């Protein structure tokens, strides 16, 4: 009992082949779009690599790039096959390749689905990577004279300006690290020495933030020093002041940014997956209907097309048997319950030379 | 004296018509490109409209947009004409249309060239417009509570950060303006009172700049206040310190940006101008070659094509004659009455 049997007249077959040809070319274009989306995501992640710790997040854009390229190749081949399928004689060329092609494409669509799901699952890893990366970057903010970290200050400043954020989770993160290098601290001043002595690690901590945390929407000039000291500034209360500095943390800002990108990409990949699946279904119908036409030996007659020849369970069972028999070829024939003492006559005839006369049995005579 | 006479055998005419059809469609795309370039330039100019005093520079993108739209029409008709050119039956209906068509096309093509020239000529106007606009922007920076000027601070801050510049000519412009509003000054403090008394207008002037002048590339945290006071900061010499704040003025930064944009657009428009010019020249040659064929039985004869029948000066006079006649018509009437009065006066004097 075939799965989803459909009757195909000659004209219907031809139209199906032509439509599939066009759809395959559209799929090539969507494959190229997937590829470019993968490249775009890779570039965006690369841009902020300095505030991301080492984590396995590159697999998502790499997967998208690979899927995009393979989709282009598969659909290009599919387009050629469908173009030739209008003519029954040309179909004979592709007859043997078509079934493996359909199976490969079926497994490939799984890869596309996996790619789409990966986009949504990257969130946790990205959050961890950003958390660690930003903490490190802020700690080395002051080390503009250390090779390898010279430009970290610039990176963090530009990040805070561009994404309108301050610190890791909020501006208070800057209160807990020394972000002013000792090179610019006058150690002879009493105020500086007091601050250094006031904590265990001997760090110069203050309730101030770098200039890049300043919010330009504020109606008053930016207050970046003595933020928690209300009396240091005229008409200022730091608990209610919201517009002075950026309130959002950079971890949250970057996470939102990347999540938006990946949600859009994930949606595009899902739509591509559905499209590929429909094209694959069409190709399968085309293949089965053309094979049935060849069996009937009249190229202009009606034929049946189906997804699976027998029901789903039977097809699965027969495929499993095929796979099992592939494995059996190497095994010894164990008839007689595996007892090596029982003489099991060989089923194949032995060849005893050109005369084919069996040799005399050597009797065990005493 | 004929300008640019060329012989056209039948095959060459056919090839010319076919090539021209293709060329005119390319020119249509080029016309759409010109329109797009004009729109881009206009959008970029409008984005910074708050720091520009006048809108004189907008004539460049406006001209480009008009020329782009006109060239769409010109090239559409060019393709239609050359399609009909080889058909002796259909070509004569374009006869009366062609003279004004060429006049209008030449006008718009020359306008394209003018737009590019104007973009260089108006550089001075752009600079003075920015000078006044930025000066006002800096002056009203502190007025975040005045309706109509609430967003000046935001605009100037964003501008300085995006274009990496500070002040009008340089950062010292901020020393001459009170950029901290009186709402945030503690008038009971001695320091504030001293500063206000120290100048004639009673303004709170200081040697400091807003945070948006700070460079992220600086190795040390930004010094924005007491810039000229070396002793206020450890290990600081303001004469040699180059990386602390942006040293470039915003006027220079903006002029460079816009001139760069207009150079790029100008290069594109010049190549489109050459394309459009070649379309018109080819169409003219095709038209004159086909006119010589008209009325003959054998349409495959060799004919001559030319650009202008008479010389350049004579052709211009020919086109301007109707315009001048219209203007001179009034003078002719006056001359006639003057002649009549003089003839009536003459016999009296002769007596």
Q: What's the overall average pLDDT of chain A, rounded?
A: 87
Secondary-structure element series of chain A = EHHHHHHHEH
Most strands sheet of chain A: 2 strands, antiparallel
Unreliable stretches covering 5 or more consecutive residues of chain A: none
User: Which sheet architecture does the biggest sheet of chain B show?
Assistant: 2 strands, antiparallel
Average per-residue pLDDT of chain B, rounded, comes to 88
| SS elements, strand count of chain A | 2
Low-pLDDT stretches of chain B: 345-351
- Total beta strand runs of chain B: 2
Envelope shape of chain B: elongated
Quaternary structure state of the chains depicted: heterodimer
**Strands ordered across the widest β-sheet of chain B:** 1-2
Share of β-strand residues of chain B = under 5%
Q: Report the portion of residues of chain A in β strands.
A: under 5%
């Amino acid at each position: 009992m075939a799965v989803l049997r459909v009757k195909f007249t000659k004209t219907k077959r031809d139209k199906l082949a032509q439509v599939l040809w066009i759809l395959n070319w559209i799929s090539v274009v969507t494959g190229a779009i997937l590829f470019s989306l993968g490249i775009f995501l890779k570039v965006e992640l690369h841009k902020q690599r300095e505030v991301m710790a080492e984590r396995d997040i590159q697999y998502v854009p790499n997967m998208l790039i690979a899927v995009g390229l393979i989709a282009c190749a598969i659909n290009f081949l599919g387009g050629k096959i469908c173009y030739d399928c209008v003519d029954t004689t040309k179909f004979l060329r592709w007859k043997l390749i078509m079934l493996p092609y359909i199976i490969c494409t079926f497994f490939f669509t799984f890869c596309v689905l996996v790619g789409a799901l990966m986009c949504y699952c990257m969130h946790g890893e990205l959050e961890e990577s950003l958390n660690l990366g930003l903490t490190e970057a802020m700690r080395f903010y002051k080390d503009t004279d250390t090779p390898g970290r010279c430009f970290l200050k610039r990176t963090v400043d530009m990040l805070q300006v561009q994404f309108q954020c301050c610190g890791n989770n909020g501006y208070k993160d800057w209160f807990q690290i020394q972000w002013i290098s000792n090179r610019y601290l006058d150690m002879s001043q009493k105020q500086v020495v007091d601050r250094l002595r006031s904590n265990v690690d001997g760090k110069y901590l203050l309730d101030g933030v770098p200039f890049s945390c300043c919010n330009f929407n504020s109606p008053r000039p930016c207050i970046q020093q003595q933020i928690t000291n209300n009396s240091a500034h005229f008409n200022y209360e730091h608990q209610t002041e919201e517009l002075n500095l950026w309130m959002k943390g950079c971890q949250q800002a970057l996470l939102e940014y990347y999540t938006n990108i990946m949600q859009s990409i994930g949606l595009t990949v899902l739509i591509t997956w559905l499209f590929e699946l429909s094209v694959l279904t069409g190709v399968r119908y085309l293949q089965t209907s053309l094979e049935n036409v060849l069996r009937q030996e009249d190229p202009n007659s009606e034929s049946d097309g189906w997804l699976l020849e027998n029901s789903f369970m039977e097809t699965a069972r027969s495929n499993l048997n095929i796979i099992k028999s592939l494995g059996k070829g190497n095994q010894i024939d164990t008839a007689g319950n595996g007892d090596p003492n029982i003489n099991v006559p060989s089923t194949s005839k032995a060849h005893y030379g050109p005369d084919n006369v069996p040799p005399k049995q050597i009797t065990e005579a005493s | 004296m004929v300008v640019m006479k060329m012989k056209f055998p039948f095959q060459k005419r056919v090839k010319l018509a076919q090539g021209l059809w293709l060329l005119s469609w390319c020119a249509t795309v080029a016309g759409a490109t010109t329109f797009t370039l004009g729109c881009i330039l206009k959008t970029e100019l409008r984005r910074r409209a708050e720091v520009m005093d006048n809108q004189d520079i907008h004539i460049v993108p406006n001209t480009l947009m008009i020329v782009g739209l006109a060239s769409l029409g010109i090239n559409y008709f060019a393709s239609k004409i050359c399609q009909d050119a080889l058909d002796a039956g259909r070509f004569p209906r374009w006869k009366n249309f062609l003279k004004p068509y060429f006049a209008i096309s030449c006008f718009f093509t020359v306008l394209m060239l003018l737009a590019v020239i104007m973009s260089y000529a108006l550089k001075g106007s752009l600079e003075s417009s920015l000078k006044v606009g930025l000066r006002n922007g800096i002056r009203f920076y502190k007025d975040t509570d005045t309706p109509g000027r609430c967003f000046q601070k935001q605009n100037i801050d964003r501008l300085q950060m995006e274009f990496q510049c500070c002040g009008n000519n340089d950062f010292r412009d901020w020393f001459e303006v009170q950029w901290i509003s009186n709402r945030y000054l503690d008038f009971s403090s001695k320091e504030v009172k001293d500063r206000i008394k120290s100048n004639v207008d009673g303004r709170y002037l200081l040697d400091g700049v807003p945070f948006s002048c700070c460079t992220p590339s600086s190795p040390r945290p930004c010094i924005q206040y007491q810039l000229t006071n070396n002793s206020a900061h450890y290990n600081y010499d303001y004469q040699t310190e180059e990386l602390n704040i942006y040293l470039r003025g915003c006027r220079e930064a903006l002029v460079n940006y816009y001139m760069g944009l207009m150079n790029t657009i100008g290069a594109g428009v010049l190549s489109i101008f050459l394309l459009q010019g070649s379309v018109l020249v080819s169409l003219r040659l095709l038209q004159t070659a086909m006119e010589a064929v008209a009325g003959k039985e054998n349409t495959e004869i060799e004919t001559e094509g030319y650009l202008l029948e008479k010389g350049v000066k004579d052709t211009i006079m020919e086109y301007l004659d109707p315009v001048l006649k219209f203007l001179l018509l009034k003078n002719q009437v006056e001359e006639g009455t003057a002649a009549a009065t003089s003839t009536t006066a003459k016999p009296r004097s002769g007596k």
